[in-house]
Structure formats: C-alpha cells, structure tokens
Amino acid sequence: MDIKYFFSIFLRRLPYFLLVSCLISAIAIIIAKALPPAYESQMKLIVESPQIPTELATPTISTPAMEQLQIVEQRLMTRNNLLDIAARFKLFDVEDEMTPDRTVEAMLKRTTIRKSANHNEAALMTIAFEAATPEKAASVVNEYLTLIQKEDVESRTGRATQTLEFFEQEVTRLSEELARKSADILKFKLDNSDALPDSLDFRLGQQTRAQERLAQINRDISQFTQQREKLMVIFAQTGKVRDVTPKELSRDEEWLEKLRADLANALAVYSPDNPNVKVLESRIRQTENAIARRKSAENPVANTNVDSTGNMMLDIQLSEMDTRLAILEDQRDATEELLDNIVTTLSKTPANAIRLDELELDLGNLQTQYTAAVNRFGSASTGERIELLSQGQKISVIEPPALPDEPTKPNRMLIAGGGTFIGIMAGIVLVVALEMLNRSIRRPEDLVAKLGITPLATIPYIRSRQQMIAQRSGKIIVILAILVGVPSLIYAVHTYYLPLDLLMENLLSKLGI
C-alpha cells in the first residue's frame, strides 16, 4: 500500500475522523470548563531540638524527630477529626448525600502530607489541603495546625507528668518498703538478741569461762564431800572433832569477782533486760548471799568455847559444810543452766546469721532501688519543668498557612489540549480500524491477491447527482446530530443530574484509581 492510497482512504473516512476527534475534544473542553477550581493552602512544620543542652538537663521526652512527625500525622488524620472538620467548615456541597466513609476518603484525598528528614538535617513536614474556595482551604490548614500544636503540647506535658507521677509513686512505695524492712530487722534482732552473730565471740568466751567454773565447782563439791566424810570418820574413831576445812575460803569471793566482770562485759553488749544479764545478776546475788551465810556461820564457831562438847563442834562443822555444799550445788545448777542457754543460743546463731544476712541484703537492694528512684524522680521533675516551659523538643511552624491567590486545579489548558490530542489519535485509530475491518475488493491489487486474476482495465463507479446529495446530506445530519446532541447530553447530565467532577470522581473510585 502506498501513501496515495492511504491518503485517499483518510479522505474517504474524514467525516468519521472529524466526528471522533471533535467529539472527544468537545467533551474534554466541557469537562475542563465544568470542573470547579480547587485552591490549595499549605504550611511547613519543623521539629526543633531541646533549647536546654541535654548535658545540663535531660528532657523526659526523647522521641526521634521522624517518629514524632509520624505520631502527629496518625493522630491528626483520625476519622473523628476529619468528620468534625468537614462538618464545621461545610467542605462538600452534597454533604447530606455523602456517607461518613466517603467524607473521610475525600478528606484524605484532598490532604497532602510530606515528610523529610535526611541525615544531619532537620525533620520537616509539609501539610496542604485543597478546597473549593481559598477561605476553606486556609481554614482547614489552620485547624490542622491548631490540632497539631494542641496534640504536641498535650502529648509532651502529659507524658512528662505521667513519668513524674510514676517515679513519685515509686519513691513513696520504696520508702515504705524500706521502713517496713528496717522494722523487720529491728524486730528480728530484738527477738533474737541473745543469738546474734555479732555477739558470737562473747558467748564463746562466756561458754569457756562457764565450763571452767563448772569444773572448779565440781572439784570443790568433791573436796567438801571428802572432808565431810573424813570428819565423820575421825569423830567416830576419836570422839573428837578437828577442823579439816581450809582457814580461808576465797574461791567464792574470786567467783563473785568473775561474775561481776562477766556482768560488766555483758552490759557492754546486751541491754539490762537481756536474759543473759538477768542470769548473771541472779548468780551474783546467790553468791553474795552464800558468802554472807558463810560468814554468819563462822562467827558462832569463833565464839564457841573450846571446851564445848564434841557433838556441838561436829554439828557446827557439818552444818557449815552442808551450807557450802548447798551453795556449790546451787552454783553448779546455775552454771549448767547458763551453759545450756549458751549452747542453745550458739545453735541458733548460724540460722539467725543467714536470716539476718537475707534481711540486710533485701534492705540493701531496696536502698539501691530507692536511691535510683530518687535520682530519676529528680530528673523527671526537671524534665516536666522543661516541657511545661516549652523548652524541650517541640514542633514549630516555619511557614504558617496562607490564603491562596490562584487555584491550583484543574489545569484547564492541559485538559483541553490533552483531550484534543486524544481525539485526533482516536480518529486516526478509528480510520485505521475501519479500513482493516473492510475486507471487500476495491483495487486491482485485491483481485490479483485474492482471486489470482489480472484485470485489463478498471472502470470507476460513478454515482448520480441525487445519490451524491443524499449521501452527503446523511453524513452531515449524523455529524451535526453527534456534535450537537453529545454536548447537550453532557451539559444536561452536569446540570440536572451530577456535576461532571463528582461523576468522574465516582467513576474513578469504582475503578479503584
């Protein structure tokens, strides 16, 4: 096929080309004229660093800048906020016919949010909104700014206050725990004052001295028993009494001095109400009474006439020995009781030491936690003060919302020019498609190609004048009907049914675009 043939075909199909291209161009021009203007107002925000150096005072809120912007965006673009803004500013003329879901979707489409936070650069956020009038666009962006600033302040101060309250409660709780644990340790020491590990050395020494004293008492008892038996034997053999007792009895006095020394040592460790102190005082009193009784018993012996009878001397010496034996037995019982008490306390000391270590370890841990909580409470108090004075990290406005002077949408020249270009291309495609679908034989080449017949000559078909007039009239009527009817139909739909912009928006929404 040569160029002349294609040109002749294009001329024959010219009405179809003109029809399609003009129709599409007219629709594009009508849509460009019908689309309402859209005005865009925008603002620019920045995340400022804390004004007080973090080396001097650590703020409570330390959220990364980009994360803070993302949180603000999510809280701003909530369903309730968008529905409230759309209702208060009456952004949609067909608001009564729009469902809440469609309203939210429309608000999200008309809102543009861009964030940028490159390395070593400040975090920026640009928020823009499109509306039918400049006033509505600026009002919505101003409302966005109000919500962002309110949310930023409430979030920062709220978190700082909650942090301060938490550590205040922690300090109070740990203080009560410390007081309770200290009271437990004090009560444990009072209940086990005679079996604590800090007095172990003293009780071991006391045990050694008591054991030595018990051995000495046993030896004295044995000695006095032997002297009494010897006295009885001598009296039975001779009928006379000899003084077989020592002239001086200093052991009781020495024992009394030892007891008093033990009492002084015990008072240095225990309180006067301690059971060990009470036992030592009782033993001292018993020893003092024994010495007094011995001395009172010696006086009658000294004043006895040497010429008295043997029975009286025997009775006196036996009485004296029985008294001293009784005293020694009392001392032995008291010493054995003291030893039993000491052994009992010594057996309790390891368990008490373990329990006391546990209590003191718990107290140390609580003290560490309390100190850390107090330090954090101080930091939280400083952080709250920083946030209340707006000296911490915050979102600030660097470009406030402005009233737009010119609409940003639609680009009517682009729509009209694009529609014209699409119409021309559609006309060309229609012409080519019609020619490809027409399989009839119209040229000698078609006879040769399809039937294998080579014609000698070709005679063109000549129409009569009436046929030509009828054919041209029919084409003109069809073209006029399309050119007039289609725009009229489009105008009627736009005026009486639904504006073309909303109709296109609904169509694109259904198509998922």
From TrEMBL:
The keyword Ribosomal protein does not apply. The chain crosses the membrane at residues 14-35, 413-434, 476-497. InterPro entries: Bact_polysacc_biosynth/exp. Keywords: Coiled coil, Membrane, Transmembrane, Transmembrane helix. Residues 164-227, 318-376 form a coiled coil. This is LPS biosynthesis protein. It comes from Paramylibacter ulvae.
